Amino acid sequence: MIRITAVCGMGLGSGLLVKMGVERVLKRNGFSEREFGVEVADISTARAIPTDIYVTTAEFSKQLGQVKAKIVEVHNLFNEKEIEAKFLEPYKETRTAKGLK
Amino acid sequence: MQIILAVITQLLGKASILVGIIALIGLLAQRKPLENVVSGTLKTIIGFIILGGGANIVIGAITPLGSLLQQGFGLQGALPVNEVFTALAQKQLGQQIAIVFALAFVVNLLIARFTPWKFVFLTGHHILFMATLTVGMLGLTVLSGSPVLLIIIAALFTGFSMAFFPWLSAPFMEKVIGSKDFVMGHFGTTTYVLSGFLGRFVGDPEKDSTENIKFPNWIGFMKEPLIAMGVVMFLIYLIAGIAGVARVGTAEAAKMFGNTDYWWLNCFIQALTFAGGIGVILLGVRMILAEVVPAFRGFAEKIVPEARPALDCPVVFPFAQNAVLVGYLCSIVGGILAMILQIVLGGSAGAGLIGAVVLPSMIIHFFVGGTAGVFGNATGGWKGAALGGFLNGLIFTLLVGTAFVALSKLGFGSSAFGDTDFGVIGNVLAFLGSLFK
């Protein structure tokens, strides 16, 4: 199961937008809903969550600091084309690393 | 038959289950796989229960503060933290709020479908806050005897706000993000629009842009709202503690905390417990919204495909990161000034010339003040951002103060809503309530 965490200030509004965006992009590109899970976190607790990929904006990616997971930075949280452009590659790499076909 | 009726009444009587049913409908309508429907519904119900748990943590953490402020300054301070206000309201009004929450989506869709205000409000927690505010203010005053009428009118107010405020923000939003892709779906729009409007008169967006300023690195910690809340709450607790202990001594203060630790250590722990409690409330709200908002969005896309989404305020932050900081800091200044005015004008007992005394909330100053900064910067550079932020702090603090007399009758202790549009609607409803006395 590939774990994705959308990070924002309070873990509410904008994080949920990113979560929706990521889920829609993955679905549109043919990935099964069963192989990934997206959760939302606020910046203060984000580092404590075990995850494979973080998705967030530039200001928070700085604050995430050194983490083992991949970090995907987006500028326009609502723009699915941007998510598609920046997120798919890291996602596919993670799939391969986990041995998924 | 009797048993079935009794079972249904008990189930629907629990707000947690009502919210679960809303999620269930949404998940089924999206044709999600069965295990997602089951887990999504259960997660929503659990989220609601977690919300209640968070409320208890927060109440426990701020009760000693109330006693200290009372003893030390003869002061009752209102805490403008939406999350606490909403979590507390669930106990008494949870059922009605859940239904209004669901109906408000419907009202928004109807308005988008049949009027020129084609906006779909996707910021779930603000819908929840507005639903809570309208149910609370109407339910315990004007409409206390008619639950059905209460739900309908509260849903109309909420749904209307979900289309009206985004519409107000549209022209300024274009200046901020440079496109018509989306508008503001956040109930601080009154100050965003004011800030955007005034910016023009004080500065130049190109020459004076906030993004030309260099900020020191340590300022980064202020950008974590929960941490900032905890730090400021500790400062407030310390000040109240010093005054309280000076008045009644450490033994009395110890009684307020219920243990024999040093009073300043208690202040520290309680302040962080407060921040932790908010974190728990947020987790609960997050779990509730996670299934409901995507479902709403799905419905909206089918019914009103040409509608523009109204989104949470942080979507504009990446467009002017420094403006957020300028707006935030100036908002704090404005808020403290307003608080001083309230104290000076007799607000300590809760009802001075301009209302009660309102303590600062870093969450509001950061998100609403910050966004006001972005709007102000778009039309007036750093001067616009500073003015917009400052006015935000001043205005929302004053609005909470004037509505607090009515709010305190709701029995949610000293907690209140925060963002400016809640202030506007809250005062309107308080005024209407007083007409019908």
Describe this structure as you would to a colleague.
The complex is a heterodimer of chains A (101) and B (437). Chain A is an alpha/beta fold and 101 residues long. Chain A has one domain (2-97): Rossmann fold. Chain A has helices at 13-28, 43-46, 58-64, 80-97; strands spanning 2-8, 36-42, 53-56, 70-73. A four-stranded parallel β-sheet of chain A has the order 2-1-3-4. The two termini of chain A are 13 Å apart. By secondary structure, chain B is mostly helical. Chain B has one domain (2-435). Helix content of chain B is 74%, strand content 4%. Chain B has twelve helices and six strands. In chain B, the strands form two sheets. In chain B, strands 5-1-6 form a three-stranded parallel β-sheet. A three-stranded parallel β-sheet of chain B has the order 2-4-3. In chain B, helix 2 (15-29) runs antiparallel to helix 3 (34-73), helix 3 packs across helix 4 and helix 8 (225-257) crosses helix 9 (263-303). The longest helix of chain B has 47 residues, at 362-408. The model of chain B has no long low-confidence stretch (mean pLDDT 89). The A-B interface holds A 8-17, 19-20, 23, 33-34, 39-40, 42-45, 57-59, 62-63, 75-79 and B 32-33, 36, 122-126, 177, 181-182, 186, 220, 223-227, 279, 282-283, 285-286, 289-290, 293-294, 297, 309, 311-315, 317-318, 321, 363, 366-367.
